[in-house]
Design brief:
alpha+beta; 7-stranded mixed β-sheet; single chain; 17 strands
């Protein structure tokens, strides 16, 4: 008997993460990845995608496109290797169209995941959209919608700096909302790519994008009491910026302090304060790639899905990086190894690291 008790801990340590999850309760990975300009080599009518054509500024050939697809798939497969299971749900941004999404999920490295796609063409001038991959064995799709950006007058944001002509000309990505169930529990996933910091007026636009997302999330909570909501995306803002803390009501870095149904818990708020980064902007580390949850997922009823601490038993989110995804030498050492550098194709991955959370019941 003593010999058996000594062997048991060793056996438990050798169990794969997925097998351990099965033994200790259902566990699923939910994440986000900015794929950094996943364009095909063909022109989409009405879109400014000319730099990603064979005769464009990036000399974007079929060979480079194939390398980009392979690299994106490699990262997703590496996350599966680390977690012992594929993402149940993975939001992505900076994708040109459904064609590139279909090519990506068909890559040999990730084809076994059987990812299904939710995607809408958005009015963004460059033609980049948000999308969602999901495993139909886990997530049962019910409905989705593309939520447009609007310059609503019923907002706290002062639009006085914007002329009507500027408003009419502005185009950005829609916000994607996908609703369905996991193990009979209702979920809604929002995938965002809020307006960039270029142009000088993004400080108005990102809070408005956050506000649009938040308002729709609150409507869903009224329509489906107890619904579990995940908001993810490239926010082009840090967890400490007002778009996140005030307009998405995710300003508390301690999960125990999230006590109101109108609040979100952002795991990356604590992480950025402790020095974590998912990308570098103008030489400084940031976390623009955020995955946050509503109170129903932060403090779930017993026996239902709840967000879990996954890094050092302290952090509820993870920034996923590996040496092959990171510059090892030169002036950009320690930063994400991207597709282009200094205008030259270097065959890297993305200028963002993916981020994710784990839910478990």
């Amino acid at each position: 008997m003593k010999k058996f008790l000594c062997i048991l801990p060793a056996l438990l340590m050798l169990m794969s993460p997925s097998l351990w999850a099965q033994k200790s309760g259902k566990s699923y990975v939910i994440g986000f990845y900015n794929l950094e300009n996943l364009f095909d080599t063909y022109h989409d009518e009405g879109k400014n995608d000319y730099e990603y054509l064979p005769d464009g500024g990036n000399n974007w050939t079929d060979v480079k496109y194939a390398k980009k697809l392979s690299n994106m798939a490699k990262v997703i497969a590496e996350m599966k290797k680390d977690n012992g299971a594929w993402h149940a749900v993975l939001g992505v941004s900076e994708v040109e169209n459904r064609h590139v999404l279909e090519d990506l999920v068909a890559e040999p490295a990730i084809a076994d995941a059987n990812y299904q796609i939710v995607h809408y063409d958005s009015p963004d001038r460059r033609g980049v959209d948000c999308a969602l991959f999901y495993r139909p064995e886990v997530f049962k799709y019910i409905a989705s919608e593309a939520i447009p950006f609007t310059f609503d007058v019923n907002t706290r944001i002062d639009w006085s700096r914007w002329t009507q002509e500027e408003k009419d000309a502005f185009r950005t990505r829609d916000i994607l909302m996908v609703r369905g169930t996991i193990d009979n529990e209702m979920f809604a996933f929002f995938v965002c790519h809020l307006p960039s910091r270029l142009g000088g007026k993004g400080a108005d636009l990102r809070p408005r994008g956050a506000e649009i997302t938040y308002n729709r999330a609150m409507e869903l909570q009224k329509e489906f009491p107890g619904i579990k909501i995940v908001v993810m995306g490239d926010m082009n803002d840090n967890p400490t910026d007002i778009s996140m803390t005030e307009y998405l009501h995710a300003g508390k870095d301690n999960i125990e302090d999230v006590k109101d149904d109108a609040e979100f818990f952002d795991p990356f708020l604590r992480m950025i304060k402790d020095g974590y980064s998912s990308l570098y902007y103008r030489g400084e580390g940031n976390i623009f790639d955020i995955v946050m949850v509503n109170k129903a997922l932060a403090h779930a009823a017993p026996g239902t899905f709840q967000i879990q601490p996954i890094v050092k038993k302290k952090y509820y989110g993870r920034v996923f990086s590996k040496p092959f995804m990171t510059n090892q030498t030169g002036q950009y050492k320690g930063t994400p190894f991207r597709t282009f550098s200094g205008g030259a194709f270097v065959g890297g991955f993305s200028d963002h690291y993916p981020t994710y959370i784990v839910i478990k019941k």
